[in-house]
Amino acid sequence: MGYYDQNDENQNKRKKSHTSYFLAGLGGAIIGALLILLAFPGSGLLNNDEKEITTEKSTERRTTEQSQQNLTLDVTSAVTNAVDKASDAVVGITNIQETNFWSQGSNAEDSSAEAGTGSGVVYKKDGGKAYIVTNNHVIEGANELEVTLSDGTKLPAELQGSDPWTDLAVIVVNGEKIKTIAEFGNSGKLKPGEPVIAIGNPLGLQFSGSITQGIISGLERTIEVDINEDGQVDWNAEVIQTDAAINPGNSGGALVNMSGQVIGINSMKIAENAVEGIGLSIPIDSVIPIINDIEEFGEVKRAFLGVNLASVEEISQYHQQNTLKLPRKVTSGVAITGVQSNSPASKAGLKEFDVIVGMDNEKIHDVVELRKYLYNEKQVGDKVKIIYYRDGKKETTQVTLSSSEI
């Protein structure tokens, strides 16, 4: 028979009771600590270093986000304000020409079709009409012209006049629906590196009102132009160079400064495989006198000699010596290959095979220099001293310039 000890049983009960109290207390402390952490995440229970790192990261993130936001707002506002001011003044121009679907036989039928598209800039409203400047090559050969406004409205247009030498033209539409007129700036104050915006309709009206941004890459660039496409340089165009994207269809559109002012009329793009980012624009200071003449006369009034010309450098050595009879020391100048009757040149006694080497105090080396001197320095009615060679002898005469084209 076993022996039962009441004291041992009571001691065991007391040990179990203390253990239960201890576990219950420990559990309560842990739960309490967790509740405090959840309720007060910013309390001093976190390590001080961890709190500092967290605070620094949060502050840095807020500062970066704020800086980025401010930068975006500043840059965007300058561009969008300029676009808002100028974009509605830029229109699309469609060149419509007659086509003959059946060119032979009795079934010949004439029709009209779109021959090309370009851009233009509305710059004036007067007498119920709106005046639009564009490029000569945009409207060249057109039987009809159609203008598309920024809201899609289409208007018939009439040609006021054009100038192939500067690649400019003016067309006119009913001004009733024209709401925005472009403001001209001053291209003479442009600086290399200045930001600019090109607005136009690249690749056709499906991309109408396209905006590209760039900088002024160069000023007073000279580009050789072959007006009649005979392979000979007829003119040197002075243009603005920009890296703003200018594609086919942008021709006649606006080059705009950050004030929303038009400072150039986009005209050409060098599109060789090895060339990227070179767009060209006619300076607005050169555009204004041309379009003023076109408005008033339908053409540009230029001083006129009344001769056909060829640069001496393009003439063979044989004809320089035997036909023109030039001294060997004379290797440049402009040969007269024909004289129009009753012209200023014929009245001054100039003849075929005379070689012009100077005008007033300016040396003349080729046809381009002669034209530039006449067009830029002389006006209708002015007198000009011509220095020339005839039969190997240097002579001079005075010409009173009239109004017509060379």
Give a verbal description of the structure.
A hairpin with a 2-residue loop joins strand 16 (355-359) and strand 17 (362-363). The protein has 406 residues and is of the alpha+beta class. It is 28% helix and 34% strand. It has a six-stranded antiparallel beta barrel with strand order 1-2-3-6-5-4. It is built from seven helices and 20 strands. The chain has helices spanning 6-39, 48-86, 136-139, 284-297, 317-322, 344-347, 367-377, and strands at residues 90-100, 110-126, 129-134, 144-148, 154-163, 168-174, 195-200, 210-225, 235-242, 254-256, 262-269, 279-283, 303-304, 307-311, 334-339, 355-359, 362-363, 383-390, 393-400, 402-403. The longest helix is centred in the first third of the chain and has 39 residues, at 48-86. The protein starts with 5 loop residues before the first helix and ends with a strand.
Uncertain regions: pLDDT < 50 for 5+ in a row?
Answer: 1-11
Helix fraction? Answer: 25-40%
Structural class: alpha+beta
Tell me the number of helical segments per DSSP (H or I, 4 or more residues long).
7
Our Rg estimate from Cα atoms comes to 40 Å
Biggest sheet character: 6 strands, antiparallel, barrel
Q: What portion of the residues fall into strands of 2 or more residues?
A: 25-35%
- Mean pLDDT value: 82
Strand order of the largest sheet: 1-2-3-6-5-4
What letter string, H or E per element, gives the SSE order?
Answer: HHEEEHEEEEEEEEEHEEHEHEEHEEE
What sort of overall outline do the alpha carbons produce when their principal axes are compared?
Answer: elongated
Tell me the number of strands: 20
N-to-C span: 147 Å
